[in-house]
Amino acid sequence: MVKRTPLIAGNWKMNFDHLRSIAFVQKLGWTLKDAKHSSAEVEVVVFPPFTDLRSVQTTISSDKIDLRFGAQDLSPFDSGAHTGDISGEFLAKLECSYVIIGHSERRQDHHETDEVVTAKTLAAVKHGLVPVICVGETSEDLEKFGAAAVPVGQLRHVLEALPADAEIVVAYEPVWAIGSGQAATPQQAQDVCAALRATIAEVLGADQAAATRVLYGGSVKAQNIATFMREPDVDGALVGGASMDIDEFSAIVRFPQHVTTV
After folding, report:
1. Are 244 and 12 a contacting pair, CB within 8 Å?
2. Catalytic one among 105, 112, 137, 173?
3. Which of 101, 111, 173, 207 is the most exposed place for a label (fewest CB within 10 A)?
């Protein structure tokens, strides 16, 4: 059986200037080091705004901090007359490991369609970045189509354009739970994550499905992370607001101390 290293990802959204990002990364690194955190047990990734990436890169590198980092978005284009866009090539040169694609806020605020999300995912893979493909449903979607239908459809659209060996991460984020303080139940998260994994198996094959990490995102906190991580198809979390609180986020990262099996 393939062992999937849990992944805890912190999406800072449009928060922290580059100076605050340096201080935050340093303090997070110290906090996790003091707790004897190991990335072999839980991989930790932060997603700063574009303007912070160089500062985060140099801080992590120079201080030898056991963190990885990624970008919150990228352009489907490599270069050219695309004012305001950021190429995957630029992100790769900054040593980004990951990039978030198709976050619900991008889909809503910037009207990103499944076609746009697919094009961005292909751009990420082309430049050696691991795409964190976000899928999820609104409360209206849930009522109209039922659980899993919309996120499965969103994911399938992307998967069908990918090479079978592409390394990806999938993040299930029920839009109705994001920032609401009301997370999905562990069983709801498990049911959808299992459906997403089944879709990966159907399109890319069983081996790829077994290796791909599927995250849950939506009002994740230190007090509920362990309940999600007990589920067999939940491999980590995409954390929003709680990722900007050192104590809260580091407690989320240390979830293995609180997970028990029954």
Report:
1. yes
2. 173
3. 111
